[in-house]
Each structure stands twice: as structure tokens, then as C-alpha cells.
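Hi all, posting the design record for the shared folder.

TITLE: backbone redesign
STEP: 1 of 1
STRUCTURE INPUT:
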């Protein structure tokens, strides 16, 4: 239980600090408007609840973690899709257009083996400077 209590306290403190940073510092600085007071109240309430009785925040913490897991699954799929579409797909198409094959895949019926023989390293020299 002590681990859960510490996690809930960390959650309350970090959420309070992030609320203050985003809504009282960053957004008023970017859009040049007055500092709102509600984030300060929510952050202060979270901090007081974390100090006085963290058990009250257990339900909020549980629902927040479920939401974080759900949004993490969605965000990872979105990010991976965007990486594939905007990075990997154009590279693959360019390599296909330029007929580049870094794996050197080719089919040769008369070949006994596709093994590529590399040169042997001198063990003494190679181990002194491995890279």
C-alpha cells in the first residue's frame, strides 16, 4: 500500500505543477491574456489532498491511469502510422525507383550458395581496436 500511496502523491504533485505551468504560465505568455485562477485552485486542492489524505485521490488516479493507457494506445498507432506514411513509404518508393537493394536480393539459378565470404580479421590487431 505504501507504494500506491507514494504514486498517488507523485501523481497529485505532478498534475498540480503541470496545471500551473500550462494554464498560468505557458498559455497566458503565448496568447497574452490574464492568468486564470481556477488552475491555481485545482492545483492547490490536489496538493492539499496529497499531503493530508492521499486515499481520497485513489479513484481519480485510477480513472486517470485508465485514460492514459487508452490514449497511449491510440497515440502510438497514430504516431506509428504517420512515421510509416511520411518516412518509410517515401524511402521505400525512392529505393524502388532507383532500383537500390541494400539486402542484395537476387535469384541466380546457377549459384550453389548465396553466402558472402568476408575477410578474416587479425585477432591481435582487431582486439586492440575493436571499432
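Okay, here is what came back for every position:
SEQUENCE:
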Amino acid at each position: 500500500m505504501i507504494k500506491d500511496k507514494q504514486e498517488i502523491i507523485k501523481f497529485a504533485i505532478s498534475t498540480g505543477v503541470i496545471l500551473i505551468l500550462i494554464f498560468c504560465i505557458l498559455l497566458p505568455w503565448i496568447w497574452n491574456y490574464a492568468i486564470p485562477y481556477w488552475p491555481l485552485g485545482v492545483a492547490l486542492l490536489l496538493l492539499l489532498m496529497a499531503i493530508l489524505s492521499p486515499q481520497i485521490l485513489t479513484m481519480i488516479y485510477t480513472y486517470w491511469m485508465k485514460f492514459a493507457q487508452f490514449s497511449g494506445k491510440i497515440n502510438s498507432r497514430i504516431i506509428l502510422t504517420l512515421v510509416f506514411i511520411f518516412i518509410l513509404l517515401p524511402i521505400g518508393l525512392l529505393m524502388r525507383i532507383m532500383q537500390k537493394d541494400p539486402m542484395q536480393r537476387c535469384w541466380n539459378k546457377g549459384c550453389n550458395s548465396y553466402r558472402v565470404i568476408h575477410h578474416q580479421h587479425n585477432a591481435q590487431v582487431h582486439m586492440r581496436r575493436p571499432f
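COMMENT: The radius of gyration is 28 Å.
Let me know if anyone wants the other runs.
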